Amino acid sequence: NRDIQQKRTQDKLGWHVSLSALPDAHGGQIVELTFRDMHNEPVTGLKLEAQARHPARAALDRPLAFARIAPGIYRAAVAVPLGTRWDLIVVAQSEHGESFHLRHRL
């Protein structure tokens, strides 16, 4: 199964990702991701592809643009309608071709 293999590959990387989401002044959220390696050092040089996915209506899905604000720390404004749950999907790719997949319910 592809998901199992992906999980094993991520476990070997030893990366840890923490996520924080805070309300912004416009009714959305500011989402911050912090990537650390197995030695608790920032994982730098990542390219992030992300989107907010509506769990029932794919037509509402929207891309997200994460910006690096410090080594290993990336931030994006997430403007999605309130009153429903959304899935945050992130694929982080290193300069060496390693990738980390994250799915989080907002």
Produce the secondary structure layout.
Blueprint: H1 2-13, E1 16-23, E2 29-36, E3 47-53, E4 62-64, E5 67-70, E6 73-78, E7 87-93, E8 99-105
What does this structure look like?
It is a single chain. Helix content is about 10%, strand content about 45%. The mean pLDDT is about 90. The chain has one helix at about 1-15; strands at about 15-25, 30-35, 45-55, 60-65, 65-70, 75-80, 85-95, 100-105. It contains one helix and eight strands; from the N terminus they run αββββββββ. A hairpin with a 5-residue loop joins β7 (about 85-95) and β8 (about 100-105). The radius of gyration is 14 Å and the shape is globular. About 15% of the residues are buried. The protein is mainly beta and about 110 residues long. The protein has a four-stranded antiparallel sheet, with no helix packed on it. Strands 4-3-7-8 form a four-stranded antiparallel sheet, with no helix packed on it.
